[in-house]
Amino acid sequence: MTTAITMAPLENNNKTLASHEFREAMSRLGASVHLLASAGHAGRVGATVSSVCSVSDSPATLLVCLNRSARVNQIVKDNGVFSINTLVHDHTDLSNAFAGEGDLPMEERFTKGNWGTLVTGSPILESARVSFDCHIKEVTEVGTHSVIFGEVVAARLGEFAPALIYLDRNYHSV
């Protein structure tokens, strides 16, 4: 059965989909699961993210979206650096830990994997499918999220393994 979601007009005549309807629609869009990690003068933090995409290959740039209310948001901005670590099929527990499941302290979350560094000092997950090491170049605030543009200064290619994706509010392997 197909269900249509329609947009309701706002008072200012702009049309937008309600938040809960947008989240439901987006749950049907499969996305790779990544761990964002950052370390610097503001501390070491990490978070599970799925909103990551390439922007340009010259200069090598990607973007990641972080909820503005997330504790890690300001710390990442203050550090000025971050890594994106793309997870493989058997990283479900790691993803859940960095998503906040179990309310583990941040340092305990980092004990769930083996971590190194590349150029910026941001944590790089050694078992990641691929890791990108980035300097923040620009941040744009859009609604509830910060869109963080990172210039990629180094990358680490991991082993080919099935990727972990999130689709229909569940993990899958591709």
Structural domain tally: 1
* Cα-to-Cα separation, first versus last residue: 26 Å
SSE-based structural type:
alpha+beta
Overall mean pLDDT stands at 92
Low-pLDDT stretches: none
Morphology call = globular
**What's the Cα radius of gyration?**
17 Å
The count of helical stretches stands at 4
What's the level 1 CATH class?
Answer: Mainly Beta
Approximately how much beta-strand content do the residues carry?
Answer: 35-45%
Q: What is the total tally of β strands?
A: 14
Helix-strand sequence: EEHEEEEEHEHHEEEEEE
Going across the biggest sheet, name each strand in turn: 5-4-8-11-12-7-6
CATH fold-level assignment? Pnp Oxidase, Chain A
Q: What is the fourth-level CATH superfamily?
A: Electron Transport, Fmn-binding Protein, Chain A
What's the architecture, going by CATH? Answer: Roll
Helix fraction?
Answer: 10-25%
| Largest sheet report | 7 strands, antiparallel
Pfam families: Flavin_Reduct (PF01613)
Organism: Pseudovibrio japonicus
InterPro entries: Flavin_Rdtase-like_dom, NADH-dep_flavin_reductase, Split_barrel_FMN-bd
Protein name: FMN reductase (NADH) RutF
Q: What attributes does this structure have?
A:
174 residues, alpha+beta, Pnp Oxidase, Chain A, 7-stranded antiparallel beta sheet, 3-stranded antiparallel beta sheet, 14 strands, 43% strand, globular
